[in-house]
Amino acid sequence: MTDIAVIGAGIAGLVCAQQLSQAGYSVLVVEKSRGLGGRLATRRLHGICADHGACYLEPKGELLGRFVEILRSRQILKVWTEEVYELTVNALLTEPKNRSPRYVAPEGMSAIAKSLAPGLEILLNQRVVAITSIPENSWRLTLESSNEELTAKAIVVAIPAPQAVMLLEPLGESVLDAVFLDNLRSVEFYPSISVIAGYPPTSQPLPEWKALTFMDNADLAWIGLDSSKRPNPQQPHFVVQSSANFAQRHLESQDLQPVGQLMLQRAAESLSLPWLNTPEWMQVHRWRYAFPSCPWHEAFLSAGSPSPLVCCGDWCGGNLVEGAMLSGLAAADEINHQLRHLLLENVNFLKVLT
Ligand SMILES: Cc1cc2nc3c(=O)[nH]c(=O)nc-3n(C[C@H](O)[C@H](O)[C@H](O)COP(=O)(O)OP(=O)(O)OC[C@H]3O[C@@H](n4cnc5c(N)ncnc54)[C@H](O)[C@@H]3O)c2cc1C
Questions:
Q1: CA of 132 to the centre of ligand 1 (A)
Q2: Is 0.90 surpassed by the pTM of this model?
Q3: Do residues 199 and 272 both lie within one domain?
Q4: pLDDT in tens, 292-333
Q5: Residue 158 and residue 12 in contact, taking contact as beta carbons nearer than 8 Å
Q6: Which end of the chain is more exposed for a tag (fewer CB within 10 A), N or C?
Q7: Is 59 near ligand 1, meaning CB less than 6 Å away?
């Protein structure tokens, strides 16, 4: 029996798990993928790495600011650029309005999540497929691949709300508060499609920008020269992100290659860089739950059940990586409040980094 099972090893789950573990609880993190980070995602392919999820960190508040400073001092993060260009529909490239440092991990953005893993017990490649309430105020978690079962006194569900609905709905209103389930169902996400595309070393001209936002483009949202994040890149490679509308139209496509090709064609046309249309290689990724479109207005969502069950993630209270971290911390506080009231004042998940 673990004190707390955390479902999801994205940034929210890891911050929450680290905080609770440092407070003295036994914590087990269960993650369905083979790596850490969730949407802080890095893919290794053709001898390079590329960030097909979160592209950079731009701290607005104190917590992410401190986190970034520590990761910079450990050479995990560096400033990538201070400028994100904008391209309007009539092909006008405009100088960035807001100059502020955008931080990236040369080893890939998933390195940020990995920095929070030391000391945590984490099960990878294990999807939680069912949760049941068992006597003596505890929970049982059923895992897909091993058919194994875990028990915990409390659960943190650190996954996108629509996925949490699928997992929690079967528990029904006899275990979960009806209002809680309604609130969870009210959260919605935009999808996104990302393309990673590599080009011959001779490709010219390379753009003057490293990152660019497409303004009012029906199909595209963002493009970054991802190779410029890496030390000594051998060839240029880009990451292109679709608009939410485009992703919605193509989300169920069996074959994503033509969808990715269409995105590159659109980018080549809009940017007047014809060679973008003929990559040496490319890979396409579908994010069914990319950005919260209709978030929950508080930093966590508690089930109101006899045994603690608290949901968190970027869809609670804020958005992006910073919002996910704050939500993970708020969920840790709430679980502690419902379980044992340990003193969390001197507990700081950032200690794992120092
Ligand atoms: C294309 C894209 C670009 C982005 N760009 C930026 C950016 O530039 N800057 C920024 O700050 N943010 C950006 N974001 C947003 C940022 O990535 C997210 O806000 C943040 O990573 C969310 O963290 P999270 O922990 O809430 O959720 P997630 O990262 O989604 O973590 C949830 C985890 O739960 C796991 N999981 C789900 N279901 C189960 C289950 N049943 N059992 C076990 N595990 C499960 C998932 O595999 C995942 O690892 C971007 C996102 C996308 C998709």
A1: 25
A2: yes
A3: yes
A4: 999 999 999 999 898 999 999 999 988 899 999 999 999 999
A5: yes
A6: C
A7: no
